[in-house]
Automatic annotation (TrEMBL), chain A:
Keywords: Cell membrane, Membrane, Transmembrane, Transmembrane helix, Transport. This is Iron complex transport system permease protein. The chain crosses the membrane at residues 12-33, 64-84, 96-115, 121-140, 152-171, 201-222, 242-264, 309-330. The keyword NAD does not apply.
UniProtKB/TrEMBL annotation, chain B:
This is Iron complex transport system permease protein. The lineage of its organism: Bacteria, Bacillati, Bacillota, Bacilli, Bacillales. The keyword Membrane applies. It holds the Pfam family FecCD. The chain crosses the membrane at residues 6-25, 59-79, 91-109, 116-134, 146-169, 190-208, 235-261, 273-298, 304-322. It comes from Paenibacillus algorifonticola.
C-alpha cells in the first residue's frame, strides 16, 4: 500500500499532462463530430477566428461553448465530491448526498412545471438558489455544537428525500409535456448550453478552485478525524464550514447549469485517488481534470451515438458510473 | 408480557378502525350499515358497487401493503443492524419500475395484470442482484456491503428507468403515478394474486422472529449462539423479497413506512424482535390506512398519491432520527 502511494505521488505531473492532452483531444473531437462535420484543420482555426466562415456558427456558437460548459460542470462536480469526501471522511459522499441535488431539482422542477412562464434563462439562478438553500438547511439541521460529518450526511439524505417527495407531488399533478422537460433536467443534460451558461459558470471555478487548493492542507488535517485535527491546532468547525461552502457552491453552480449529472462527484475523485494517491493538493487538481474529461466525453457520446436523437449526458455518465461503482465494490469485497 | 399482549389487541383494534374509516370515508361518505349491506344484501346500487369494487379492495390493499412494509423494514434493520436501513434499500422499487417500464415501452403490454407480474418479477430480481453483490468476498454478507450494493443498484436502475421514460411520453404519463406510490390503481383480482407472496413472507417473518432476534445481535454473537448466519440471512432476505415484491406490485413504491415504523415500535416494546415484528405489521397497516385516508382530503379537488403523503410525513422523521443518532 505504501509503495503504491509513493509511486502514485511521484507521477503527479505526467498524469496532469496526459489528462490535459486527453481533454484537448476530446474537445477537438467534440468540435469536429456532429451532423455537420468540421475537419480537424478548420476546427481550432475557427475557434481562434481565422477559419472559414462556413464553420463559424457551428463551432463558435454551438459546439465549442457547449463542450466547455460540459468541461467546467465536470470539474466543479468532481472537485465538490473530492472536498466533500474529505470533510466527511466517507468515500461515498457525493454532492447529491447532502441534499444539493435535491434542492436544485426542487426549485428547477417547480419552475419548469408549476410556473412555465418563467424565462428559461433564469433557470440556472433558480436552481442555484435551491442548491444553496438545501445545503444551508442541511447544515443548520445537522448543527449540534458542531456539524459532525456523519450527521451531515444523514440529515442531507433526509433533506434530499423531502425534496424528492415534493418533486413527485409536482410530477403527478401537472401536464405531461412539462414533466418531460423536468425529467430531462433531472437527468442532467448539456443540450443547448451556450456562452450564456459558460460565462456565469467560469468565475465560480476560477475563484473556488484556487481557494480549495489553498485549503488543501486543512483538508488533509480534517481527514485525520475531529479529535486529531483539534489536537493539531485546527479550528475544525470553521475550516469544515468554509470547505463545505466551497464544495456546495461548486456543485450548486454546476448543477444549476446542466442539471443533476450523476456519479461525477463519486467517480472523479475515486479515479484521481487511484492515479495520484490521497494528498488533497494532488487529488483536487487531478479530480477536476478527470471530472471534466468524463462529462465532456459523455456529452460527445450522447450526441454521437444515436443521431439525431440526443442521449442526455447524465444517462451516459450513469451508464459508465454505476458499473464502475460495482467494480469498486467487487474490488473491495475482501475488506471488512 | 401482558402489557405487550394488550398492545397487540389494541393494535388490531387500531387496524380495524382504520379499515372501517378507509371504507366509509371519502368523497362520498358511506354509513357503516350500508357497508355491511353491500356484502349481506347486495342490491346493485351505485353505492354498493363503489363499496365492493373500490373502497373495500383499496382498504384491504392499504392494510396488507402497510403491514408488509412495516415487517420488511424491521427485518432489514435487524439484519443490517443499521437504524437507517429501509426495505427499499434492496432495490425492489426501482427493479419493479424498470421491468414495468420495459414491459410497457419495449413490449407494449397494456394489461394491468402483466404489469403487476412485471413489477413483482423486477422487485425480486433486483433484490437478488443486490443480495448476491452484497455477499461477494470474504466474510459473506456484511451489512455495509449490503447497503453499498443496494445504493449502487438503486442508482443504476433509477437512471435506466428515467432514461427510458424520456423517450416515451405514454410510459412517462402512466409511470409518474405509479412511481409516486398509490393505492388507487389496484383491483381485487390483482390483490388476490399477490396476496400469497405477502402471506408467505409474513408467516416466515413470524416463524423466524426468534432467529432474526439473534441476527440483530451481530454476526459473532449469533454464530456463538449456534445460529447458521448465512442460511438465516438468506431466509430473512427471501422474506423481505416476498413482502416488498408483493407491496410494490400492487401499490408502487411507498416510502418511509418501512423506515419509520420499526423505530416507533422499538420505542414502544424495546429491542425484542419477536414483538417488534408483529407490532410493526400492525402499526404499518394502521399508518398506511391513515395516510391513504389523508391523501383523499389534503387537497379538495384532487387526490394525492399515498406515497407522497408518507414521504412528506416521513422525511422530517428521518431528519429527526439522524439528528438524534449521535447524541449519546
Amino acid at each position: 500500500m505504501s509503495r503504491f502511494t509513493l509511486s502514485a505521488s511521484a507521477r503527479l505531473w505526467p498524469v496532469i499532462v496526459v489528462l490535459i492532452a486527453a481533454n484537448f483531444i476530446v474537445l477537438s473531437m467534440s468540435i469536429m463530430i456532429g451532423e455537420y462535420p468540421v475537419p480537424l484543420s478548420q476546427a481550432w482555426k475557427t475557434v481562434f477566428g481565422i477559419g472559414e466562415p462556413e464553420y463559424e456558427f457551428v463551432v463558435n456558437q454551438l459546439r465549442f461553448p457547449r463542450s466547455l460548459v460540459a468541461f467546467l460542470v465536470g470539474c466543479g462536480l468532481a472537485l465538490s465530491g473530492a472536498i466533500l469526501q474529505g470533510i466527511t471522511r466517507n468515500p461515498l459522499a457525493a454532492p447529491g448526498v447532502i441534499g444539493i441535488n435535491g434542492g436544485a431539482a426542487l426549485m428547477a422542477v417547480t419552475a419548469i412545471i408549476a410556473l412555465p412562464s418563467v424565462p428559461i434563462a433564469l433557470l440556472p439562478f433558480i436552481a442555484f438558489s435551491g442548491a444553496l438553500g438545501a445545503a444551508a438547511l442541511t447544515y443548520f439541521l445537522a448543527w449540534r455544537r458542531g456539524a459532525a460529518p456523519m450527521r451531515l450526511l444523514l440529515v442531507g439524505v433526509g433533506v434530499g428525500a423531502a425534496s424528492h417527495a415534493y418533486i413527485t407531488f409536482w410530477m403527478t399533478t401537472r401536464h405531461v409535456q412539462n414533466i418531460k422537460q423536468a425529467m430531462i433536467w433531472l437527468m442532467g443534460s448539456t443540450y443547448g448550453r451556450t456562452w450564456d451558461h459558460f460565462w456565469p459558470l467560469l468565475p465560480w471555478l476560477l475563484v473556488l478552485f484556487p481557494a480549495a487548493l489553498l485549503m488543501s492542507r486543512t483538508l488533509d488535517i480534517l481527514k485525520l478525524g475531529d479529535e486529531l485535527s483539534i489536537g493539531l491546532g485546527s479550528s475544525v468547525e470553521r475550516s469544515r464550514g468554509l470547505l463545505l461552502l466551497i464544495s456546495v457552491s461548486l456543485a450548486g453552480a454546476s448543477v444549476a447549469m446542466a442539471g443533476t449529472i450523476g456519479f461525477i462527484g463519486l467517480m472523479g475523485p475515486h479515479i484521481a485517488r487511484q492515479l495520484v494517491g490521497q494528498t488533497s493538493r494532488r487529488l483536487l487538481s487531478v479530480s477536476a481534470l478527470v471530472g471534466g474529461l468524463i462529462v465532456m466525453s459523455a456529452d460527445l457520446l450522447g450526441r454521437a451515438l444515436l443521431p439525431p436523437i440526443e442521449i442526455p449526458t447524465g444517462i451516459i455518465t450513469t451508464a459508465i458510473g454505476a458499473p464502475y461503482l460495482i467494480y469498486l465494490l467487487y474490488r473491495n469485497r475482501n475488506r471488512p | 408480557m401482558n402489557i405487550r399482549l394488550t398492545g397487540i389487541v389494541l393494535g388490531i383494534v387500531f387496524v380495524i378502525f382504520g379499515l372501517a374509516a378507509s371504507i366509509a370515508v371519502g368523497k362520498s361518505m358511506v354509513p357503516l350499515h350500508t357497508v355491511i349491506d353491500a356484502f349481506t344484501s347486495f342490491d346493485g346500487s351505485r353505492e354498493h358497487l363503489i363499496i365492493r369494487t373500490v373502497r373495500v379492495p383499496r382498504a384491504l390493499m392499504a392494510m396488507m401493503v402497510g403491514a408488509s412494509l412495516g415487517m420488511a423494514g424491521s427485518i432489514m434493520q435487524a439484519i443490517s443492524r443499521n437504524p437507517l436501513a429501509g426495505p427499499e434499500m434492496l432495490g425492489s422499487n426501482y427493479g419493479a419500475a424498470l421491468l414495468l417500464v420495459i414491459s410497457m415501452f419495449v413490449f407494449g403490454f397494456t394489461s394491468s395484470l402483466i404489469h403487476m407480474w412485471a413489477a413483482l418479477l423486477g422487485a425480486g430480481l433486483a433484490c437478488l442482484v443486490v443480495f448476491m453483490l452484497g455477499s461477494l468476498g470474504r466474510g459473506g454478507l456484511t451489512s455495509i456491503k449490503l447497503i453499498l450494493a443496494g445504493a449502487t443498484i438503486n442508482m443504476l436502475l433509477a437512471s435506466m428507468v428515467q432514461g427510458i421514460l424520456i423517450f416515451s411520453e405514454e410510459s412517462l404519463d402512466e409511470m409518474r403515478f405509479w412511481m409516486a406510490g398509490s393505492l388507487t390503481g389496484g383491483s381485487m383480482e390483482m390483490f388476490v394474486r399477490v396476496l400469497p407472496y405477502m402471506l408467505v413472507g409474513m408467516a416466515g417473518a413470524l416463524v423466524l422472529s426468534r432467529q432474526i432476534n439473534l441476527l440483530s445481535l451481530g454476526d459473532e454473537v449469533a454464530q456463538g449462539l449456534g445460529l447458521k448466519i448465512g442460511l438465516m440471512k438468506t431466509a430473512a432476505l427471501f422474506i423481505v423479497m416476498c413482502l416488498m415484491g408483493g407491496s410494490v406490485a400492487i401499490a408502487g413504491p411507498i416510502g418511509f413506512i418501512g423506515l419509520a415504523v420499526p423505530h416507533i415500535v422499538r420505542f414502544m416494546v424495546g429491542l425484542d424482535y419477536r414483538w417488534i415484528i408483529p407490532y410493526s405489521a400492525l402499526l404499518g397497516a394502521g399508518l398506511l390506512l391513515l395516510a391513504d385516508i389523508a391523501a383523499r382530503f389534503i387537497f379538495p379537488y384532487q387526490e394525492l398519491p399515498a406515497g407522497v403523503v408518507t414521504a412528506m410525513a416521513g422525511a422530517p422523521f428521518l431528519i429527526y432520527l439522524a439528528q438524534r443518532r449521535e447524541k449519546r
